[in-house]
Amino acid sequence: MPSKPSKSIEIFENSKPERDYTIRIRIPEFTCLCPKTGQPDFATMNIEYVPAGHCVELKSLKLYIWSYRDEGAFHEAVTNRILDDLVQACNPHFMRVTAEFNVRGGIYTTVVADYRDESWTQEAAVILP
After folding, report:
1. pLDDT for 104
2. CATH at 43
3. How many domains is the chain built from?
4. Residue of 20, 32, 41, 70 marked catalytic
5. Is there a domain that residue 2 lies in?
């Protein structure tokens, strides 16, 4: 196999650090294992962030997400760990990870975790007519 799972997240320089803009990443094939039963859990991970000096390199993100496939993790814990690891890697102005887990035992779970750099001031939203 040419690639394998990895906990390493690569970054690259933001080409427009003077501008606030949002990067949205959708990962519809996240899998981990239920720590109680060992059964697979499936989720769509949505990552949104306003980069500061660096952006997340997508191939490394794919391999990072893949690394959870054989790990047992509670939904809340894995969502927060992914947010922590991404924030540590790229130090954004703002980041949100939303994990929409598929049904398990008749229950859907969505976990939303946010990070905001305390020194960053968000510009006022533009409301269009």
Report:
1. 84
2. 3.30.1130.10
3. 1
4. 41
5. no
**Per-residue pLDDT tens for 105-116?**
899 999 999 999
CA trace torsion 20, 26, 27, 32 (10° rounding)? 80
Quote the tokens at residue 79: 């969502």
pLDDT digits (tens, 9 = 90+) for 94-105: 999 999 999 988
127 in a structural domain: no
Q: What is the pLDDT of residue 105?
A: 82
Residue 6 lies in a domain: no
**What pLDDT is recorded for position 2?**
64
Catalytic site includes residue 20: no
Question: Does 75 map to a domain?
Answer: yes
In whole angstroms, what is the distance from residue 125 CA to residue 71 CA? 40
Residue 32 catalytic? no
Query: Of the residues 20, 34, 84, 117, which is catalytic?
Result: 34
d(CA 101, CA 103): 7
**1: pLDDT strictly greater than 60:** no
Bridge-based pairing of strands 11-13 and 40-50 is unpaired
pTM confidence score: 0.94
The residue segments making up the domain with residue 107 are 11-116
Helix (H) or strand (E) holding 74: none
